[in-house]
Design goal:
Blueprint lengths: L1 H9 L3 H63 L13 H15 L7 E6 L11 H12 L6 E7 L2 E11 L6 H4 L7 H7 L12 E10 L1 H52 L14 H28 L7
Antiparallel strand pairs: 1-4, 2-3, 3-4
Helix pairs in contact: 2-3, 2-7, 7-8
Amino acid sequence: MFKKINSKLNNLKLAKKLTLLLLLIFIGGIAFSGVALANILNYKAQDEISSKAWLMIRTLSSVRSYTSNEVTPQLETRLERDEFSPQVIPAYSARIVFENLKKDNKSYKDFIYKEAMLNPTNVNDKADSFETAIVKRFQQNKSLKELTGFRSLENGEYFYIARPLALTDSSCLKCHSTPDVAPKNMVEIYGTKNGFGWTLNLINGIQIISIPAAQVLQNARQSFVVVIGIVAIFFALAIFMANLWLKRYILGPIKRVVQVAEAVSTGDMDAEFEKVSNDEVASLVEAFTRMKLSLALAIKRVEQYRMKPRKPDN
């Protein structure tokens, strides 16, 4: 196989050999730069997406903490024993703040925030199969503080950050232990089937924020195409200029040397080798010029020898 390729290469002219070499360099350069560029752009895209997600989830976590530490104690003192107000629930505050943010800023309209629970009071907070699997991972590994990755939803690809949620305040058992101790108006709103039977420190849900990644990844792909296109054009121009330079300064002078050498070989001693530069090609021209002079001198001597009268042999 290698011998066949080598044989074919040997039959190619110098210009085609150089073009083939440049083409191989072109393909290799495009492939290498394409892989490197794709990795860089994907890294930047994921970094941009994750930065938005981290900012959002930290903001909503701060809202939950503020509600739990500042708002809930104030409201609970004003509520009767059997009264219930959603404003005392950190999840409710985080959701309302998030919805207001989406209304005020269109750039957040495709963001998704959910406090997905295995057994929620509000069925809208019920964890789907994907979220349930994440909850179980947190349950199996208590040291795990967060999970990140990509998930596919109806609107496309999303980057998510998930954090575990557990009941850590015993006062919350008033609403989530058994229906008979829960506030009556809460039972009237949500019923007695959901949101009960919780225990302290048991991870039974996650706080998850999902950020649309399709547009960012698409921008990265578009940037990739543009940059690779520019690199390809640059390489193509480099090959064109190299071939043009090769024909003008190397192949052209060599062809002229060959033409003069062929003329000299047929007896045209008036043909002159033309020196147009001071490079290696010029050295070749000088060598052929000396060879022509030596050949002319040798021919002249032969002619003189032939024309010289000779004494007849006895």
